[in-house]
Specification:
There is one protein chain. It is globular and about 50 Å long. Helix content is 46%, strand content 15%. The chain has a 7-stranded parallel beta sheet with strand order 3-2-1-4-5-6-7, with helices on both faces. α1 packs across α7, α3 packs parallel to α4 and α4 packs parallel to α5. The protein has a single domain, classed as NAD(P)-binding Rossmann-like Domain (Rossmann fold). It is built from 7 helices and 7 strands. It is an alpha/beta fold. Keywords: Oxidoreductase. It comes from Streptomyces viridochromogenes (strain DSM 40736 / JCM 4977 / BCRC 1201 / Tue 494). One of its GO terms (molecular function) is oxidoreductase activity, acting on the CH-OH group of donors, NAD or NADP as acceptor. InterPro entries: NAD(P)-bd_dom_sf (IPR036291), Sc_DH/Rdtase_CS (IPR020904), SDR_fam (IPR002347).
């Protein structure tokens, strides 16, 4: 029987949605979790709730665009629990709009959070993984990068860049020390639409999420499946989307 008991997992973007659902599920299954996000009060409350239910959880305020913050997350995890087995790169934003809108600030923000934030995770976690002889990098990507829809060009580009980094890290990690998993959700009922700048796109996304979106717990189960595998098994990529999504 595969188990998460004893796993030490740090999660970015854990103040809601997929990150929160992942923290709660992993803790229920026996992992110790360190939640991180910019909203300190929110992650403190979630961590406290997990502990009240008998789980192990800590919280660390992190802005993933700041490399020092992500290094502090890894250091906090190691200080609290002795090691870090998994880093879940979940933080992401989607201020999407047609390219013709020339929302260069939105483009830069997506690059900073979705791509540079993930690279900051690699830079922070990889030395710890190497030092302890094992580690697992999990990133929440998106099916938006598999089929690029209107208004999604830059968002999809950042997600495909993350996919490329994962494949590069995999090919550089054939000694078996580091495992990588990219998980691509389809429509999930989260507040991601709140970060979308264009009103019509934002409203359409919200309606679609409400109509067909799967719960964040569905993605959390995919994360659990990937990290509970034995050390000689790597689940490289998982797509998780509504059955009715085209």
């Amino acid at each position: 029987m595969l188990s998460l008991h004893g796993k030490i997992v740090a999660i970015t973007g854990a103040s809601g949605g997929i990150g929160e659902a992942t923290a709660r599920l992993l803790a229920r299954r026996g992992a110790a979790v360190v939640l991180s996000a910019r909203r300190g009060e929110r992650i403190d409350a979630i961590a406290r709730g997990i502990r009240e239910e008998g789980g192990r959880a800590a919280a660390c305020v992190v802005d993933v665009t700041k490399s020092e913050d992500v290094r502090r997350l890894v250091a906090t995890t190691v200080d609290e629990y002795g090691r870090i087995d998994v880093l879940v790169n979940n933080a992401g934003i989607a201020p999407i709009s047609p390219l013709a809108d020339l929302d260069t600030e939105g483009w830069a923000a997506m690059i900073d959070v979705n791509l540079r934030g993930m690279l900051n995770g690699v830079a922070a976690a990889l030395p710890a993984f190497r030092a302890q002889g094992s580690g697992h990098l999990v990133s929440i990507v998106s099916v938006a990068g598999l089929t690029v829809s209107p208004s999604m060009a830059v968002y999809a580009a950042t997600k495909n860049a993350v996919r490329t980094v994962h494949e590069g890290l995999r090919t550089e990690s054939t000694d078996g020390v580091v495992r990588t998993t990219a998980i691509s959700p389809g429509y999930v009922r989260t507040d991601l639409a709140d970060s979308m700048a264009e009103p019509d796109v934002r409203e359409l996304t919200r309606r679609t999420m409400d109509a067909m979106g799967i719960p964040p717990a569905a993605v959390a189960r995919a994360v659990a499946f990937a990290i509970e595998q034995p050390g000689d098994v790597e689940i490289g990529e998982i797509n998780v989307r509504p059955t009715v999504q085209a």
